[in-house]
Amino acid sequence: MNQVVVITGLAQGMGREVAKLLAQSGDTIAGFDMNEQDLLDLKKELDAIGGDHLLEPLNILDRKKILGFRDRVLEKYGRVDTVLSNIGIGFFGPFEETDLESAFKCIEINILGTAAVFQAFLPAMREKRQGKLVAMSSLVGRIPFPFESIYTATKYAIEGMVQAIRYEVKPFGIKMAIIEPAQVSTKFASKIHHLPPQGSPYRDRAKRFIDRDNELIKDATTPMAAAKKIFAVLKTENPKFHNQVDFMSSFFLFLNKILPTPVRDYILLNHMNIK
Predict the structure, then answer these.
(1) Per-residue pLDDT for 219 more than 90?
(2) Distance between CA atoms of 253 and 268, rounded to whole angstroms?
(3) Which of 173, 1, 157, 191 is nearest to 85 (CA)?
(4) Which domains does the chain carry?
(5) What distance, in Å, lies between the first and last C-alpha atoms of the chain?
(6) In whole angstroms, what is the distance from residue 53 CA to residue 45 CA?
(7) Does pTM top 0.90 for this prediction?
(8) Nearest to residue 246, comparing CAs of 204, 268, 216?
């Protein structure tokens, strides 16, 4: 059965590729993003593929407008089968030197953004006693990375929030799933990689971390390869709760299960060249 799928943050990267895969499979896509030009370009691509879609420019922090978007989607299609919360921003830097006002934006977008879109569509799903809520988390939602303390905190919060919601909505036939990428070859990391200032006691290790990350990105999973795995989760009636899209996340989560924490940490710090 074809689905009505809501996707946030679908103008670029993995979200964009997922939207195209869904359109090719005959699913209906409703989504929003702040990047109007990329959204218009995506609309042209979806028009060429065929099928129905509703795309709007919208800020995830504008919760009233999210509710308006929700109403338009339900009025047009009558239902929503799956919601993929894909909006999120990164945050990089030594915790000691972090500007907490800037950090709050990351916390609000990543955590409350996910909460807002889930909360908006949950009542309609509950009434129909079916649906899937899928959140984009990260490897760092279960294995913390240095210099990403704020970002890590948001992804740990998403993991905990979604697990708690799962217990509440299961009696209504609603499924929950989390996607946990580590590295995908997008511009996500490069947008947040800023060296600490000269004289910072963290500068040398942060530079080594950035250099290593940039190295790894060259051979990382492509957005299309990651999108195919996300697409499979969205199309599965009973998806697994935790889902990985790349080798690095699968590998480190496996190590996390079988190794003592000091050994896992040694491997992680060595891997990122910041022992």
Answers:
(1) no
(2) 11
(3) 157
(4) 4-271 (3.40.50.720)
(5) 51
(6) 11
(7) yes
(8) 216
Is the alpha carbon torsion for 42, 18, 245, 138 positive or negative? positive
Report d(CA 250, CA 31) in Å as an integer: 29
pLDDT at 112: 96
C-alpha span between 86 and 53 (Å, rounded): 17
Detail the DSSP E strand segments found in 99-241.
131-136, 174-179
Q: Mean of the pLDDT values across residues 100-128? A: 96
List Cβ<8 Å contacts ≥24 apart for 250-256: 252/139, 252/143, 252/182, 253/139, 253/142, 253/143, 253/180, 256/142, 256/143
Q: In this structure, what token pair is assigned to residue 54?
A: 């509703």
C-alpha to C-alpha distances, 82 to 130, 141, 177, 219, nearest whole angstrom: 9, 22, 11, 31
Q: What angle do CA 235, 238, 242 make, to 5 degrees?
A: 90
Distance CA 253, CA 146 (A): 16
Length of the chain: 275
Q: Which three-class secondary structure state does DSSP give residue 156? A: helix
DSSP secondary-structure letter at 93? S
pLDDT at 191: 64
- Residue 216 amino acid letter: L
Query: How far apart, in whole angstroms, are the C-alpha atoms of residue 112 and residue 101?
Result: 16
